[in-house]
Amino acid sequence: MITRRIFAGLCLTAPAAAVLTATEAAAQMGAYGKQKVVYHINYPGGEGDKAYRGALRNIQNHINALGAENVEVKVLLHGNGIGLLQNANTDTALQTSVGSLKSQNVRFHVCNNTLVGREIDYSNDLYDVWEEDIVMSGVAELSKLQMDGFTYIKP
């Protein structure tokens, strides 16, 4: 079966299995440009950490669409969002997702107000968090990042 797709004025003809998606074609043509984004997670993961897994998948899809070299990603965790890294302490699938994103230069920021208020020791209770990952205030950091040109995304 031969499939044709029109994208940006180009007609792509290929077997159905080899057709470029609009996302792939846009990435190849640089249509999205360079981006700076902050993903805001302040909610519980729900049963099986479904919400956390979905958020991490959205971040990976974003990177896939642009290429890691074309996007600067920060993940801001506060309130119930801290549960993502708490649960990753014992969940190898979450560890793999977080580690993969970090290997693509995604930075995870953790709110110190949440750590203090919930008496969480980041070095023992959270997966792969270091002192440089801690920000004084999650909401203040969100505002600062937006002022610095980061697009706000709430997955």
Write up this protein.
With 155 residues, this protein is of the alpha/beta class. Residues 1-14 have low confidence and may be disordered. The chain is globular and about 45 Å long. 26% of the residues are buried. The chain has seven helices and seven strands, in the order ββαβαβααβααβαβ. The strands form two sheets. The chain has a five-stranded parallel β-sheet, sandwiched between helices. The chain has a two-stranded antiparallel sheet with strand order 1-2.
Tell me briefly what this model is.
This protein has 155 residues and is an alpha/beta fold.
Secondary-structure blueprint of this entry?
Layout: E1 2-7, E2 10-15, H1 22-28, E3 35-41, H2 50-66, E4 71-77, H3 83-88, H4 92-103, E5 107-111, H5 112-117, H6 122-125, E6 134-135, H7 138-147, E7 151-153
Parallel strand pairs: 3-4, 3-7, 4-5, 5-6
Antiparallel strand pairs: 1-2
Distinctive features:
155 residues; five-stranded parallel β-sheet; 7 helices; disordered N terminus; single chain; alpha/beta; two-stranded antiparallel ribbon; 7 strands
Class derived from helix and strand content = alpha/beta
Number of separate helices: 7
What is the chain-wise order of helices and strands? EEHEHEHHEHHEHE
Q: Radius of gyration, rounded?
A: 18 Å
Strand order of the largest sheet: 6-5-4-3-7
Portion of residues within helices:
40-55%
Q: Identify low-pLDDT runs.
A: 1-14
Give the mean pLDDT. Answer: 88
Assembly category: single chain
Shape: globular
Q: Beta-strand percentage?
A: 15-25%
What summary fits the major beta sheet? 5 strands, parallel
Termini separation = 37 Å
DSSP, total strands:
7
